[in-house]
Amino acid sequence: MRSEIARKSRSRSKTSVTSEIRSMKTKLRSLRKASWRACRTERKKTLADVTEVDTSQST
User: Fold this and answer.
1) Full-prediction pTM beyond 0.85?
2) How far from 24 is each of 5, 6, 30, 38, CA to CA, in Å?
3) Would you state the pLDDT for residue 46?
4) What span, in angstroms and rounded, lies between the C-alpha atoms of 39 and 22?
5) Cα-atom radius of gyration of the chain, to the nearest Å?
6) How much is the pLDDT for 54?
7) How far is CA 6 from the centre of its chain?
């Protein structure tokens, strides 16, 4: 009986750790995507500013 309870407890803790790792990976992936989006947006703004300067200097 005790060994079965211990086995179930270990199984639960393994599942919990696995779930925690999966959750952490999902959060990291989400942060990376958000970071990439912010970087891409910043690049677009910079490119727009540079283009604006180029066109204003040529006229």
Assistant:
1) no
2) 28, 27, 10, 21
3) 84
4) 26
5) 25
6) 66
7) 36
